[in-house]
Request: fold
Amino acid sequence: MNNKAVILGSNYYIGLSIIRCLGSNNIHTVAMDYSKENTYASKSKYLKEHLIVPHYRNNKEELLTFLIDYAKKQDNKPVLYPCADAYVEFIDSHLDELRKHYLINMTNKGLWSKIMDKEFLHALALKHDVLVPETLSPNDEDFEEKLISLIGFPCIVKPTDSPPFVSKFRVKMFKCYNMDELKLAIMKANSENLEVIVQRIIPGFDDHMYTFDAYLNQDCKVTHWITCQKLRQYPINFGASAYTRQKYVQELYDIGTPFLEAIGYKGFAEIEFKKDEKTGKFYLIEINARTTTLNTLLRKCGINFPLLAYNELTKVDIGSNAIKHDTGIVFRYMFEDMLSIRKYIKTKQLSRVEVFKSLFAKKAPAIWSIDDPAPAFDFLYMILKKMKRKITNK
Reply:
C-alpha cells in the first residue's frame, strides 16, 4: 500500500465514505479541500493528511499546479478520487497532465464531461438503443408545437451541465406546469448563460427510481455490479437519495452493461434509471461518473468500489463480484430524510405508518459510524451552528 489516495473534497459524506473505504484497509488517505469550513469528513480517524488547496473553479491553474507538485514529492503515483461533479470536470479537462503524476481510471479525455452533458448523453443513449425520456432543446425548430405533442405538461427543465446550475439555483431542475412557467424557467437559465433541455416526466413515484452501480476494468468490462431502489429523495420527487435500499434487478445489468462497455467507460459508474409505472420499461436518467451518495450502502452489501479502483490501478487482482440477491440493507442520510419525510407526509405521498415501518430496516448510515464517530459529531455541531445563525438572524 505504498501509493497514497488523494480525495478531492471532504465537506460531504461522499468523501467520508471513500476515506473510510480506503483508510480501513491501511491505505494512506489525503483529503484536499479549498476551505476548512464544514469539512467534517476530515475528522475521520482514517484520514492521514488534510490539505487546503486552490479552488477548483476560481483558481483552476493553481489547483493543477498544486496537485502536480504534491504528486512529484511522492515515491509512487497517488490514486486520485473526485467526490463531486465539479472535480470530475476539473480532472477530465486536465486528464493528460494529471495522468502523468496520478493513477486515474479514465484514459479517454473528455468522456466524463460528455456523459455528464445531458444533451450529449441523450443522443448517446439513443445511438445504443437505450431508452431515455423524450427531450427537446429550446432552440429546436417548432419548439412549442413539439413540446405539446411529444412531452406535454408537467415537464422538467434540466441543465445540460449540472454543477453550475445547482450552484446557482440550489435545485437540480425546474418543474413546469404550463407554457408560462416553462418560458420563465428557460429565461432564468439563459440569464445565467446556462444551457438547458426540456424533458418528459416518466410516470411513477420516487420508488420507481433505480440505480445500476458498476465497476469497469481497464479493458472496459464490467467486473462488479449491484442494483438499488430509491424509496425517498430530497428534495422529494426530483432530488438525491435520502433513503435507498439494495434491490436486485437483473434487467438493469442487462441494459447498463452493454451500454457502458460500448462507450469505452472505465472505473466506477452509476446509471440512474426510472421505471415507467405504466409500461414497466426502464429509462436512463443520468450517469454519475464518480463515487456516489450510496457508497456506504454498496460497501455494506459487499462491494468496496473505491478499493477496487485502488487495487486495479496499483496492479492488484480484483476478480469479479455481483450482488444477485436482496440484502435488506438500506442507505439513509438521516438529516435530509427527516426533511423529506415531512414533505412526503404533508403532500400525502406517504403515510406515517409507511414511514414508521421503513425505519426498522438494517441501515448503512451516510455519516454515523460507531467505529469512527468523530465526523458525525462534527456534522451535528455544524448543523447546530447553522440553526443558531438562522434563529439569531430572524
